[in-house]
């Protein structure tokens, strides 16, 4: 991750903002000690929960939690 000192960050702020906006976070340091991490802003619209976006696209079988049950048991019990 890119680390820049405060003076360099002030000098190159526009370039660093563009860098972060493209998804590349960076750290601003003072005397070599990391002080802050700059990350891209994500608007609330971009954070919308996508739960259910595949609803109706497929079906989960009723025995989903038992698929391969015999094989799994035999593997744990050492039977073939």
The radius of gyration computed from the alpha-carbon positions, rounded to a whole number of angstroms, is 25 Å
**Judging by the overall fold, what is the CATH architecture of the domain at 2-38?**
3-Layer(aba) Sandwich
Specify the biggest β-sheet: 3 strands, mixed
Unreliable segments of 5+ consecutive residues = none
- Find the CATH superfamily of the domain at 2-38: YefM-like domain
Shape: elongated
Question: Could you outline the blueprint of secondary structure elements for this entry?
Answer:
Layout: E1 2-5, H1 6-11, H2 13-21, E2 26-30, E3 33-38, H3 69-77
3D structure, described in words:
The chain is of the alpha+beta class and 80 residues long. It has helices spanning 6-11, 13-21, 69-77, and strands at 2-5, 26-30, 33-38. It has a domain at 2-38: YefM-like fold, CATH 3.40.1620. A 3-stranded mixed β-sheet has the order 1-2-3. The longest helix has 9 residues, at 13-21. The model has no long low-confidence stretch (mean pLDDT 90).
Task: Give a brief description.
The protein has 80 residues and is an alpha+beta fold.
Keywords:
80 residues, alpha+beta, YefM-like fold, 3 helices, 3 strands, 19% strand
